[in-house]
Amino acid sequence: MRSVDERPPLDPEDLPDGVLVADAAGQVYIANQMAARLLGVARSELIGAHLTDAMALDDRRGNEWCDCVRPYDGFNLRTTLTEQEWHTVDGRALLVTARLCRDKPAGAVQQVAVGLRDARVRARLEREHSELVATVAHELRSPLTGVKGFTATLLSRWDRFTDSQRRLMLQTVDSDADRLSRLIGELLDVARIDLGRLQVRAEPADLEALVRRVLDNIAAGTSRQVRLSSEQPLPTVWVDVDRLTQVITNLVENALRHGGGTADVLLRGMDGGVQLIVDDDGPGVPVELRTRVFTRFWTSGGKGGTGLGLYIVAGVVDAHRGRINISDAPSGGARVEVWLPRNEPEVLAG
């Protein structure tokens, strides 16, 4: 193993961000291609230029970067310039930070190292965050409105209603509370998936029995038909039963919601594991949209829902080291294919 001293020096071209380094006189002597691309000039024009000319950025009010931050003659205890947004001549936004290297504390600046990054990445993340907050607020407000409305009505006009009317209102409140609980659970699952902390507690499971139990529960609440077929023999797989129940329920309910009234479920052994196939009779999913189906808050066709279900499904399947994809069903609808490995613990497999 190489010692630290034997390792090759870092090449600025290997860095993902733009980098400029200027000496004590302000002359740029290091500039990578990313910095040149972000600043919109040739790299040869940056090398040897004064930092004031190389960093031709302003704050959209005519204030230039060097005049504002004064890297060489500003506050003499500074060693870092915090990241701020600045703009090129053609209006592109860049995130700029800098390190001021001094010969001693409060001493003269010997070197200025500038980091540049395209601000569009942060803008996109901020936009996605705003969309997430708006969607969550909307989904929470709808059942909360029902809860608040019915409870306020009951509290103010209790004596004006019959027992059956009160019961109906309380049942509606209970239903809305269940909806809130499910939504909060989904949001927690999304957070766990995003952080890579979704845990699965694997145990041996009979997938055919598990699927039949899920379908029986769904059939109890809908008149639509779900057909199950199984190709024997099916290997025993180690799964988190609760999480897989969540996957099967979501896929079948989604097929019934978007399909033409029926859904078909097939189980078969494949590649040492088990493949679960759910077909519907709906219009299907266009090829160009199939990767987007498993993103957060993706909805289609005005069928309602939070748009979190398939994102969670994909996260659970991934946590089981499985695969999921969408193709065309024989009927022309959508086919969702989930493959799960056996996941048998090594201590038992050996």
TrEMBL record:
Top-level EC class as recorded in UniProt: transferase
Top-level division of the source organism's lineage: Bacteria
Entries under CDD domains matching the protein: HisKA, PAS
EC number: 2.7.13.3
Biological process per Gene Ontology, one example term: regulation of DNA-templated transcription
Subcellular location: Cell membrane
Main localisation: membrane
Catalytically driven reaction(s): ATP + protein L-histidine = ADP + protein N-phospho-L-histidine
Protein name in UniProt: histidine kinase
Native species: uncultured Nocardioidaceae bacterium
